[in-house]
Amino acid sequence: MQYLLPEILVAGSALLGLLAMVVVPKVRGLASWVVLVGFLAAGVDAATMWNVTPSLIVYNSMAIDKYGITVTELVLLAGISTILLAWNAEHFGEEFPVLVALSVLGMMGLGGATSLMPVFLGIELLSLPLYILAASRHTPEGGEAALKYLLLGAFSSGILLFGMALLYGATSTLIFVAYPGIASHAQVWLLWPGLGLVVVGIAFKLAIVPFHMWVPDVYEGSPTPVTNLMAFGTKVGAAIILLRILAFGFYGQAGAWGLLLGYLAVLTMIVGNLLALPQTNLKRLLGYSGIGHAGFLLVGIATHNIQGAQAMMFYLLPYGLAAIGVFAVIRLLEQGQDGDRGVILSDLQGMAYQRPWLATVLIVGMLSFAGIPLTGGFVGKFFLMQAALFANRPGFAVGIVVGTLVGLAAYLRPLQAMFQRDGVSERVRTMRWSAAGVMVVAVAVVGTIGIGVYPAPLVHIVSQSANFYWLKGG
Amino acid sequence: MQGLTEILILPLIGAVTIGAFKSVAPRRLAGIWATVLVLASFVFAVVADLHLAGLTAGHREITVTLFNWVTGFGPPIAWNLYLDPLSGIWLLIITGVGGLIHLYANGYMADDPDQGRFFGYFNLFIFSMLLLVLAGNLLILLIGWGLVGLASYLLIGFWYQRPSAVRAAKKALVMNTVGDVGILIGLALLYVRYHAVTYSALFGAFSHASPGSPFFGWVAILLYIGAMAKSAQFPLSGWLVDAMEGPTPVSALIHAATMVTAGVYLMARLYPLLRLAPGVAYAVAAIGTFTAIYAASAAFFQQDIKKVLAYSTLSQLGYMFLGVGVGAYTAGVFHFMTHAFFKACLFLAAGSVIHGLGGEQDIGQMGGLYKKMPWTMVSFLAATLAISGIPPFAGFYSKEAILGQAFNSGHDLLWMVGVITAGMTSFYMFRLFFLTFFGTPRNTDLYQHAHEAPAVMTVPVIALGVLSVIGGFFGPWLNHWLRPAFTAYPGAPHAALESGPTVGTVLAVGLAVVAFVVAYALYIRRAVPARAGIERWPGRWMLAAYGLDTGWRDVAVVPLMAAGTWVRRQLDRGILTAVVGVANGIWLWAEDLRPIQSGYVRRYALSIMVGLAVVLAYSLMKA
Amino acid sequence: MFVVVGMSNASRIMGPQAPGGVKKATYESGIFPETPVGYFSVRFYRVAMLFMIFDVAIMAIYPWATSLSAMRARGFYDGLVFFGILAVAFVYVWRKGGFQWH
């Protein structure tokens, strides 16, 4: 029971925040504080469990291991940055932090799931609050985004659930870590369609082409902190559960899904980055870039070797740090004049000269997305490439290179806009710094550069946590 | 640590501090601070080299691992610094000559309001170049390589108000990127095959390989493309001449003394690889020789003082590659060293002239300046004699060593071309010298206002002039110093300096003297104007460097531009939306051809369904 | 799946299609349709949803109550936690005025 303490802390902070806002409605922003403290406490508690002997709990449907702990820390980082970016933003509604906490709880559940039941619960728990959060700006675009997300999310949940039912039919158990022993003599005509449906259901959350279409609309319509949570947290949750299901549950059948995922990965990398090129709205650009990065993540799963698993886990953090840095920049710009309008490229004009620090954050983030050396993104792409080569799949490596090159052009466009000399946009002139925003960008920039220059500690952590094959014995 | 980290870190500190405080610190302080740091770095470099000299001959190398960069998955990669006699020479030149040029820049840039930015970039360049040279593995070298290109880009475009400077900077960056990609691919091939990128591991593996495998050929060609771009070998040479748009100290430091010799460094460093790819080694020598004579002839009729020097730099780089290509590694490095002395001297002296004439670079407007700027004239003369290969000046010894070994190793044709080029060099250099400093002043107005540069500028010029005189005597010492570096691995049997046939020496010097006499007769006796000969066929053709730029424009730029315009036009016409539609899924037909805009949920769902059908079909096929 | 898709679309494709005025008219058991009665008030949906949510909770509480003796104290306290969470939600809805019609 004490192993679930991080989850309990987050859930408790959500409930407490809910109570706080009705019991002491006069104290503004109390819920944000409660949830923030809950996140921090959960993070510290999860970290203290690092050396716990891995084990299965809750009737074998949750695992306590370094994999889950790493995921917990990652999604908490996403949650904390979301709370900080929405600090003092009362027009999002006072329930905002509570919903964020619930969504993060769902992501945490995915990290430890070893059974299809918590997988489904986790995905629903992370999605439902996001549907509401997407609309929390009370604009027509927000409503449209929320409705689209809801409809398509429900659609994909149905697919996922159907797939799980087929898997249960084929194997008579929901505990997917037991599949390696069963899968070989299960009824294949139930097993494979079931697996395909589950992969599609998760691929929707991960935004893999062709299940990606909702992403740019939803990213654009949602408030920036929520987009941040979607881009970082959701992706972490979906990617790691896909890895655990496939690389563990269907270990022996890698031939059947590895290549399929590889095709999807290459398609996603190229299409995502290609579509990022013509975008002028920064959040749409990030949406497509997120699609492209989902493709990179998928390469790590598709290679089906330990290097791939490690590389994918590694890549999550540099991607996430760059994402929260760039979203923080957008958020800070939105705090200037007419905040509800989306930030477009021409809004960046003159930023490099007028707001050099803000420009630095954007440069670091974009270069990391693009995979320039000395940023975390470069090291991550390097590892993925290495994993693809070790798996003897040069096609994936070529996909990474092509995707990166296309992406490079997309990411340089905002920088180009930023360095334009003729005049300074109104947005850049009127933007205001906030303490919470400064904290977020500081972590993002220091983290991105730090991982790029000295990735060894993170590599150490990741290589330990990606080693979740201990489950095979248990 | 033997101070390697300090050598590297001092210029970086300079770049960072100047960048951070340039708006608050006094304007002149940036230059002084930058100069002090580079000179301190020079002191550390001397100490490190002395330490290196104290080691036994068989183990004359220092490796420092700053930290493990990439460990855990697969082969580890560390931030290695590596000092051996070869990189030791480069260290001394970069920090020593670099320090002198920094000092000079204090005077040259004194009136520029933006000098903080200038010195920040300048220190960044020194740091990048040191990183390149001190790198202990190819990946770090590539990072230094890229940073050097970036610093060069920033400095060429320093006066960004001039469109020509921005264009030149872009051109340099594009051509250099071609080289970077070459190195990156070569490096990746080596990494995949040997699971290592450090020099020691790779060279150790090369020692056991036998020549002739196409793998080594490809790797060597890819790495040579990198060297070619950085060192402006034909046909990637056009950017170097345009790079003269940058301030003159930049031309002296980056585009003459240090950065453009990075290719020579890389090729000399990779001598074990060149052993395995003899065809590539010959190509290096042949292309080098061709670049030498091509650039020398293009320099004949140039009208801009810096452009003459730029073409002469190209030509001398060709000599260095000739030396490296025929296996005369020490001679190549020797020529790099003397070239750094006399070419930096020439550029700085030219800078003094430009400075004294208020920015005038056209040699048609100069003349008779020896009275006004005697110190500059004397230094320029020393360097001109050195580059022309007149004994006993520096260039004579190094050029002789290269040509001699080209002859000894049986490359008769290359040797012949090299000797002819030596004569041509003498002609165009003395043409420049006479037109600038002698004869009657062609622009009396400018002449009246000409003045000798301040001491902060003349002192470095004179120091480099002295080095141009005595630099050649370092040969035997250099020979001894570099021997451990070129005997560590097989592949450089003829690395040591050799002397060529006496007849060759006589021929080369004789041609140089004849060329000097011809230049004297033409430009002093008959006072031929600078613009003579450029109207008609050979001159006009040579002035335009045989249309290499136009060629590049026709072959690469125009088609790409046309393609870009075409795509742009299609984009305007709305076909791009259709193309994007294809990418998004060809099933997005009918009413709304702009799926980039907020689309319909049912289409998104349809996309999911189609994807699902494909996935299901695939998994059923597998089952 | 192909069978399902095929059958559901077959009638649309193969069946006779002759839309006309009479066919499209609303059929109200022989009575001619009048003006629409309008939509339900959105408040109705809110209350209905809240009812649903708390009603569904009964589904969990009933089996818990019947098997309490088998689950002993541990099961009892787990159930209380569930109640607690439900109670927080109830308090929240109440204080937010979720049960008021206006």
Structure description:
The complex is a heterotrimer of chains A (474), B (623) and C (102). Chain A contains 20 helices and two strands. Chain A is mainly alpha-helical and 474 residues long. In chain A, strands 1-2 form a two-stranded antiparallel ribbon. Chain A has one domain (2-472). With 623 residues, chain B is an all-alpha fold. Chain B has two domains: 4-532, no CATH class; 574-622, no CATH class. A two-stranded antiparallel ribbon of chain B has the order 1-2. In chain B, a hairpin with a 6-residue loop joins strand 1 (62-70) and strand 2. In chain B, helix 1 (4-21) runs antiparallel to helix 2. Chain B is globular, with a radius of gyration of 27 Å. Chain B starts with a helix and ends with a helix. Residues 578-598 of chain B have low confidence and may be disordered. Chain C has 102 residues and is mainly alpha-helical. Helix content of chain C is 69%, strand content 0%. Chain C has helices spanning 2-14, 21-24, 42-66, 68-95. Chain C is elongated and about 70 Å long. The model of chain C has no long low-confidence stretch (mean pLDDT 77).
Strand and helix layout:
The complex is a heterotrimer of chains A (474), B (623) and C (102).
Chain A: H1 5-23, H2 30-48, E1 55-57, E2 62-64, H3 66-85, H4 96-112, H5 116-134, H6 140-171, H7 179-182, H8 188-206, H9 214-221, H10 224-249, H11 254-276, H12 282-302, H13 306-334, H14 351-354, H15 356-370, H16 376-390, H17 394-418, H18 426-430, H19 435-453, H20 456-465
Antiparallel strand pairs in A: 1-2
Chain B: H1 4-21, H2 29-54, E1 62-70, E2 77-83, H3 85-108, H4 115-134, H5 138-156, H6 163-194, H7 199-208, H8 214-230, H9 238-242, H10 248-257, H11 262-269, H12 271-276, H13 278-299, H14 305-325, H15 329-356, H16 374-388, H17 394-408, H18 412-437, H19 444-449, H20 455-470, H21 475-487, H22 502-525, H23 537-543, H24 548-573, H25 575-584, H26 601-622
Antiparallel strand pairs in B: 1-2
Chain C: H1 2-14, H2 21-24, H3 42-66, H4 68-95
Helix pairs in contact in C: 3-4
